Amino acid sequence: MPAALDGPPTGAMGAMRNAVPGYDIPGMHVTRHRLLHMPIRTSSLRSLGAHLNVFAIESFMDELAAAAGADPIAFRLAHLTDPRARQVLTGAARMAGWEARDSHDGVGYGAGVARYKGVAGYCAAVAEVEADTDVRVRRLWLAVDVGRVINPDGVINQVEGGAVQSASWTLREQVRFDRDKITSAGWDSYPILRFTETPRVTVRIVDAPDQAESGAGELAQGPVAAAIGNAVADAVGVRVRDLPLTRERVARAIEDS
């Protein structure tokens, strides 16, 4: 089969989706590496490159904040001038009680924020994670700005669904393959978040009636993945950069630290 389509590097297509950070970073240069010759054809389930690109960018923002000795939210705000992005970020932090959070051994908090495709809706997420014998997301708080809202229930449903889907991607889901074919042949052997593992999700809409409507269907996936990854790093003191954030990968990172 031919390679999956990957449009021009505008920032909104394919692997480039959300590859350009929304922060005020001088001298920015973004390079796309695309492999066309692989034994197995690859593509995306949802959100194209946004999920992984936002995870990478927001994980690195936390690393920069740590290097600067700064609070992760304050560090982001210091490099973020877009008022709508700032509003969702401060909104999610306020919902989660960020200033009063109680991080201790095995429990951590993390944040992530992005404007989907760089041109659509805004989403910020804060995650509370427990990481002891396993990695479990306890709570997610999300603030979203999708412009003028016509159906608030529809927006909340989309964002809640996207948050749970992203938690499943980030913690569990992984397609397995050998050198010839996909080996994840059925749902009975494919790891997915179960109802008993689903976090409590709280969504707040930041209404912007003077802004054009934008979709809410895929804007939560990247920020939620980043928030979970940053919360895991906060909980265990080491960072895991490969998804999914399984118990085995977290344990290996702790052993190697």
Task: Give structural notes.
The chain has 257 residues and is an alpha+beta fold. It has one domain: Aldehyde oxidase/xanthine dehydrogenase, molybdopterin binding domain (Aldehyde Oxidoreductase, domain 4). The chain contains six helices and four strands; from the N terminus they run H-H-H-E-E-E-H-E-H-H. A hairpin with a 3-residue loop joins strand 2 (122-131) and strand 3. The chain is globular and about 50 Å long. The model has no long low-confidence stretch (mean pLDDT 91).
Helix content: 25-40%
Alpha-carbon distance between the termini?
A: 42 Å
Strands in their spatial order, largest beta sheet: 1-2-3-4
Report mean pLDDT, rounded to a whole number. Answer: 91
β-strand number: 4
How big is the Rg? 18 Å
Counting H and I runs of at least 4 residues, what is the number of helices?
6
Total domains: 1
- Largest sheet data: 4 strands, mixed
> Uncertain regions: pLDDT < 50 for 5+ in a row?
none
Assigned CATH class: Alpha Beta
Q: Fill in the CATH topology.
A: Aldehyde Oxidoreductase, domain 4
The CATH homologous superfamily is called: Aldehyde oxidase/xanthine dehydrogenase, molybdopterin binding domain
CATH architecture descriptor: 2-Layer Sandwich
* Fraction of residues in β-strands: 5-15%
Specify the overall morphology: globular
Task: Report the order of strands and helices.
Answer: HHHEEEHEHH
* Class of secondary structure makeup: alpha+beta
